[in-house]
Amino acid sequence: xxxxxxxxxxxxxxxxxxxxxxxxxxxxxxxxxxxxxxxxxxxxxxxxxxxxxxxxxxxxxxxxxxxxxxxxxxxxxxxxxxxxxxxxxxxxxxxxxxxxxxxxxxxxxxxxxxxxxxxxxxxxxxxxxxxxxxxxxxxxxxxxxxxxxxxxxxxxxxxxxxxxxxxxxxxxxxxxxxxxxxxxxxxxxxxxxxxxxxxxxxxxxxxxxxxxxxxxxxxxxxxxxxxxxxxxxxxxxxxxxxxxxxxxxxxxxxxxxxxxxxxxxxxxxx
Amino acid sequence: xxxxxxxxxxxxxxxxxxxxxxxxxxxxxxxxxxxxxxxxxxxxxxxxxxxxxxxxxxxxxxxxxxxxxxxxxxxxxxxxxxxxxxxxxxxxxxxxxxxxxxxxxxxxxxxxxxxxxxxxxxxxxxxxxxxxxxxxxxxxxxxxxxxxxxxxxxxxxxxxxxxxxxxxxxxxxxxxxxxxxxxxxxxxxxxxxxxxxxxxxxxxxxxxxxxxxxxxxxxxxxxxxxxxxxxxxxxxxxxxxxxxxxxxxxxxxxxxxxxxxxxxxxxxxxxxxxxxxxxxxxxxxxxxxxxx
Lengths: 270, 292
Prior knowledge:
The complex is a heterodimer of chains A (270) and B (292). Chain A is 33% helix and 24% strand. Chain A contains 9 helices and 10 strands. In chain A, a hairpin with a 1-residue loop joins strand 9 (211-216) and strand 10. The longest helix of chain A is centred in the last third of the chain and has 16 residues, at 175-190. In chain B, 48% of the residues are buried. Chain B has one domain: ABC transporter involved in vitamin B12 uptake, BtuC. Chain B contains 12 helices and 2 strands, in the order αααααββααααααα. In chain B, a hairpin with a 2-residue loop joins strand 1 and strand 2. At the A-B interface, strand 6 and helix 2 of A face helix 7, helix 8 and helix 10 of B.
């Protein structure tokens, strides 16, 4: 099921993660190419968030290894960015939007050095990109859900990393914000950045992602959306749990959604 | 002169505690500060027994180590024994504190420490214990120790501001971009232990908790900016020290007790009249807006 890629941005080999000896991820083997927008999908409790946390070394691995750009994770920390789930932090924290976005520069600054003008410029530029330039000095406790998400995104952008891990960036945001975020992610992948997104909404998968990674404790499939996001794989991932599932399958079959890769040419018959 | 020495020492203790307290509150670890302040007791006694003197350096090191052991034990019980955090805090610090109490009572004859002093402190005696260089007395020993501690904490916060800010706000993100959450956690806990020990002689184990939490909690209600929160916490601590001292003199009561009491009073005032979160202020602005 896994396609072979010559220079993968991310390589995971034989990864197993267990909580209290109960495996949450089992024997994951995968490679992801550079410059793609990748969606991780699967039912609740499938280990989607766990996978990106394990890849970034936030959780202990029971077995296996992870390589980013063909190097161990700790050698490339400066090239990694992470957008955690919005609810994972306390938004009543005494900080302004600019304070949070400047955190994106901390990794590059190193110990003891304060952010300089260049760092402020990057932070302001990133806030502009997510349409938050009017909220620079706003307290984070006074932001709406969508604004919180945009702030987190600006922080990730300010890092100027090469690979981005995003945990449900569309959870609880309005349609306008979702649209703005996805077009931003598109421009990022055009600039050869790799963006890996944990995603919930099956209906938008074919619209949004170049690649999909289908997960349910084990890796079900990983590859280009057009060839991987099939009804059979969905069936296997969700195990018939979703009634929506057949609807999505039908939609794909009827080709309501345009195929990103274009129509595959039929080989000429001799 | 003695009045001034006591007030300055108390203010130094209060400011040191207030600065660290801000981070404890924001990390939702206020009770860990409580735990450390009690758990360092056996460290102090053991350091005293080994060195045989009340030399501050040995005590700081002894207690610093026990303080870090405390945080380690709390996390160990939480993660490995799968106990809730509050339960593991409760078990750990009472246990260590009890060991300290037993040690003091065992060696009461040999140790120049008594339970009253450890629990309540005696800041009124601060001017009596002076530092002597040559033949000249240059002021109370506690004043110098607390001065050094406060300076060290300020340096720690100034140089580690970014890292403390980030690991407090979003530890997962900090780890992802390569800033060690564990390192900064233990550095902060080490600082809390050292401050607690240094504050011991003046305000005692119980009241140091009040100074760790109350001024920081007051500042939390008054501002939405971390730098201001640190500054306001110090001001609240100093205000409590000054007013507390004069109330104690007026009532002829415990100075440390009066200071902690005033820290509580200042907190209540902030809770009622804070410009942003105050209970009265909210009510007032609501009626004002309805009237207009």
